[in-house]
Amino acid sequence: MILLELFYVFFTIGLFTFGGGYAMIPLLQQEITARGWVDEATVIDFIAVSESTPGPFAINMATFVGNKMAGIPGCICAVAGMVVPSFVIILIVARFFQGFADNPYVTNVFRYLRPVVLGLISYAALNIITKTVIVYENGAANINIWAVAITAVIFLISRKLKNIHPIVLIMISAVMGVVLYGFVV
Q: 83 with 35, same domain?
């Protein structure tokens, strides 16, 4: 039963998310936490690891959640659920796009989807920031200074070295995280 539920949930997320992996974070977070599959902290961890590992973000997230819930069969069902809607939609759009690419209605739909996608990505970014930078202890909100430090260093490096590859930034932040959280904190 969990395999069908994994397929269904990720199929739904894949079907109703426009704008790529980051735009799906709010829906993904809501669906998997509401079902009790993972808690909020684990979602943030999955997001961090999904972004840091090779491959599409959405597929990585589906893989991690599927594995946590049902091992390898869970991975297969979750990834299949995530991929099938996109695959079918791309096939349909590729087949008929030339016929309606210049249609003003289609053009307007794409134009008005852009701000929605931007809003979803912004929401996901703010949600991740509030979950990683603001730590609640004993009913009080505290700033996680180490998370702020890592963010600031990566931001400064990316601003100073404009052509630095994102993988290098990910590796630097991973090393900083291991050192700070593994040995200092």
A: yes
Mean pLDDT check: name the lowest of 14-18, 35-39, 75-79.
14-18
Residues 6+ apart with CB under 8 A from 107: none
Give the DSSP letter of residue 144: -
Q: How far is the C-alpha of 171 from the C-alpha of 64, rounded, in Å?
A: 20
Q: Please name every residue paired with 135 in a beta bridge, in sequence order, or none if there are none.
A: 142
How many structural domains comprise the chain? Answer: 2
116 and 30: one domain?
Answer: yes
Last residue of a domain, one of 136, 153, 174: 136
Q: Do 102 and 13 share a structural domain?
A: yes
Q: What is the pLDDT of residues 65-99, one digit of tens each?
A: 999 999 999 999 999 999 999 889 888 878 877 77
pTM of structure: 0.63
Torsion angle defined by CA atoms of residues 122, 42, 154 and 173, in that order, rounded to the nearest 10 degrees:
-160
